[in-house]
Amino acid sequence: MSNGESALHLILTLDAGLLEVVRLSLFVSLSAVCCAALIGVPAGAAIALNSFPGRQAVIVVLNALMGLPPVVVGLAVYLLLSRSGLFGSLGLLFTPKAMIVAQTILVTPIIAALARQTIEDYWVEYRDELTAMNIGPVGRVATLIWDARFSLVTALLAGFGRAAAEVGAIIIVGGNIDGFTRTMTTTIALETSKGDLPLAVGLGIVLIVIVMAINALAWGARRAGERYAGG
């Protein structure tokens, strides 16, 4: 049986080891995106709706942080969570929680930057109306986030795509422990180095399907937003 056939067999028979890796990967990535959204969307809205000294510099830095090197983030989180680190007493290192923290740091700038641009565009369009209605800052943020919800879904999906494909940071802070902190990307790297190609290929197929599904959702969200705006 070839590697491809063995990989398909693992997928079609719902191999327990493969499913556990996929489950943990989705849990970590989705949790990180949720945390990043709670931070990034309000932060992006605050930057979009306010003028303050150094605003352009903040935007430049935020855009630059979208390309944060994962291994550097992983190293920073590792140092913070290690026994001698600032948060070492929490005992989070080499756990899924540490992986969520690392991915949240990586994804937050992406969501914040995309949310900032999206909400700023909507603010330009609706500024006069919201000002005439005497809506306060909090109301403006809530209104614009609601109106831009379809575009913001695209930002969240972009963040999830980054999280799902990430390997450098989570292998540093998670340790790639079998049955505990092993995700799709770290398992693919490990199993390939061991020569266990069927599992690596199977997980690769699953990861590609997930990425394609994300792109389909992003396309659907954009189409829904266009129809909503047109209606």
Mind explaining what this structure looks like?
The longest helix is centred in the middle third of the chain and has 37 residues, at 96-132. It contains ten helices and no strands. It has one domain (3-230): MetI-like fold. The mean pLDDT is 87. By secondary structure, the protein is mainly α. The radius of gyration is 20 Å and the shape is globular. The chain has helices at 3-12, 16-49, 55-65, 70-81, 96-132, 137-147, 149-164, 168-174, 184-194, 197-230.
- Output the helix-strand order: HHHHHHHHHH
State mean pLDDT (0 to 100 scale).
87
Q: How large is the count of helical segments?
A: 10
Structural class: mainly alpha
Beta content comes to under 5%
Shape: globular
CATH superfamily: MetI-like
Write down how many β-strands occur, each being a DSSP E stretch of 2 or more residues: 0
User: Architecture, according to CATH?
Assistant: Orthogonal Bundle
In CATH terms, what is the fold-level topology?
Answer: MetI-like fold
Largest sheet: none
How far the N terminus sits from the C terminus, by CA atoms, comes to 54 Å
Helix content: over 70%
Q: How large, in whole angstroms, is the Cα Rg?
A: 20 Å
